[in-house]
Amino acid sequence: MNQTEQDPISPNKGGIEIRRVRENDLDHIVALDERVTLLAKPDYWQDIYERFAARRMDKRFFLVACASDDDADTKALGYIVGEIRGWEFGSEPCGWVFAFAVEPGTRLQGIGEKLFGAMSAEFRLAGIKTMRTMVPRKNQLHMAFFRSEGMVAGPYIQLEMELDS
Ligand SMILES: CC(C)(COP(=O)(O)OP(=O)(O)OC[C@H]1O[C@@H](n2cnc3c(N)ncnc32)[C@H](O)[C@@H]1OP(=O)(O)O)[C@@H](O)C(=O)NCCC(=O)NCCS
Q1: Three-class SS of residue 84?
Q2: Is the pLDDT of residue 139 over 90?
Q3: Domains present along the chain, CATH in parentheses
């Protein structure tokens, strides 16, 4: 896809730029994820970058938010990663969001909403009508955010069991 012609990722949304991730964002993203989850996962993020930022980019979206007046080396203030997946679990193709965070010091300023909006615009442009994610039931912050964006409980439930070692 020619991003300049078709990609809805805006170069400037109210002082925040939402754009596709670049390799030199990765260190910032690893550090941000570590601040949020208290676990550093550089190998995981390198793998996500290779799978979601370099291949099948019409279905895979790894987006970051940056201050729009910063230079190319600026640190990412947030990220969202999603993918269009189809026919698993008997579902028609839908857009999944599976990683999402905003820098703790810049929250509640609409950055999460801009990232979410850019992702939903990508899914919509690809002809997708349903967007999904999974959140821990008890995580009130995740619940509050996704509900505020219009997400509600979907038609599937997650099943799991512990495996004996
Ligand atoms: C969820 C998250 C991405 C929201 O980012 P954000 O930039 O602060 O969100 P926004 O400012 O765009 O908020 C949009 C709406 O979400 C809701 N919301 C966001 N934070 C909230 C909070 N702390 N309490 C209640 N509602 C909240 C509000 O309705 C808000 O709209 P409003 O400000 O008009 O009331 C951010 O809190 C975050 O990164 N949390 C940690 C995520 C995480 O654990 N990631 C790792 C595993 S995936």
Answers
A1: strand
A2: yes
A3: 3-148 (3.40.630.30)
pLDDT in the model for residue 13: 44
pLDDT digits (tens, 9 = 90+) for 113-126: 999 999 999 999 99
**Is the C-beta atom of 108 inside 6 A of ligand 1?**
yes
Tell how far the Cα of 160 is from the centroid of ligand 1, in angstroms.
28
Q: How far is CA 35 from CA 3, 85, 101, 107, 117, in A?
A: 31, 29, 10, 14, 24
Q: Supply the mean pLDDT for the chain.
A: 89
Q: How far is the CA of 69 from the centre of ligand 1 (A)?
A: 23
Structure tokens at 139: 């995580």
What's the CA-to-centroid distance between 110 and ligand 1, angstroms?
A: 8
- In whole angstroms, how large is the CA radius of gyration of the chain? 16
> What's the pLDDT tens digit per position in 64-98?
999 876 555 567 999 999 999 999 999 999 999 99
Structure tokens at 141: 């912050």
Question: How is residue 25 annotated by DSSP?
Answer: G
| Whole-angstrom distance, CA of residue 96 vs CA of residue 82 | 5
